[in-house]
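Q: Predict the bound structure with glycinamide ribonucleotide.
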Amino acid sequence: MTRIAIFASGNGTNAENIIKYFQEKDRGVEVALVICNRRDAGVYERANRLGVPILHISKSEINQESKMLGVLKEYGIDFIVLAGFMLMVPEFLIESYPNRIVNIHPSLLPKFGGKGMHGHHVHAAVVEAGERESGITIHYVNEFYDEGEIIFQAKTEVLPNDTPEDVEAKIHLLEQEHFPKVIEEVIKGE
Ligand code: GAR
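A: Predicted complex:
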């Protein structure tokens, strides 16, 4: 059984979808822990409802090596998924989980990536730039924002009158459809 920790900062729709995907059937993967750096995040209710332990870890605690590695060891974590996680992952974590940390980004990287590009900001920038398509990128995490090796991308059309909210809704559908399956494939292909 591979034990996943999901790191999230916000609403947690991806976290919920991933947890359900691995709960609905034995796929050899279990979401064993959710870590969140914002106390008011929607992901708390979702993790609690689904019976997955959720821990608050502050921005400074994320960077404390013995604390973080201790928590991950305590929960037997083999693999880390960033799902709407807005903090930089410290280097010691990347070194401790080589090719075992993946992130989802709501654009077709390398477009609309980097510091400050998250969630709604990405979709607003896509519309502002007059893009005719957008999409999702699932990638390994390295020490640079949104620059790790790309594992998977999926595209969706952006229509001339689409608002950032319209684009967000389309991206959301792609995330729901693909993210859990790609995580499963990455883990099985290890
Ligand atoms: C998702 O759209 C995810 O792709 C994006 O934040 C949203 C989180 O939603 N991630 C980033 O922008 C990372 N730079 P959720 O909390 O409902 O899963």
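A: The helical segments are 13-23, 43-50, 59-62, 65-74, 91-96, 119-128, 164-188.
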